[in-house]
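A protein record pairs a chain with a discrete description of its three-dimensional fold. The shape at a given residue is found from the number at the same position. Here is what such a record looks like in full:
>
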Amino acid sequence: MTSLNRYAPHMLGLLRIVTALIFIVHGAQKLFGFPAPPGPSLPAVFTLYWFAGVLEFVGGLLVLVGFQTRIVAFILSGQMAFAYWMAHAPKSLYPALNGGDAAILYCFVFLYFVFAGAGAFAIDKDSRA
């Protein structure tokens, strides 16, 4: 098992990149209607839903390249906690019933990046392997 430890920074970097790519798509949906609009229309500018799209798109890009990963991940983790309690929990406390599974997973993956850093393949110097 110890031989696998040497790949941990690379797997952390891969987790960061894949997470960011999927997260960026959520922001692109809200801001640009791509790949499909999130509802019948795009959110109005300066609404909470619009700000969520900005955080998801811009924050996702920053996490993707590994720039200021810990700070950005802290903000995005908080955003996902807020999203869960504001948008999902009122429907039901159970994630399987309220559609909040992704919000919870994103919240804790981003929280992990706050403590673990960006891993390999990142602009951040302090978190490279």
Residues 2-116 form one domain. The first helix runs from residue 2 to 5.
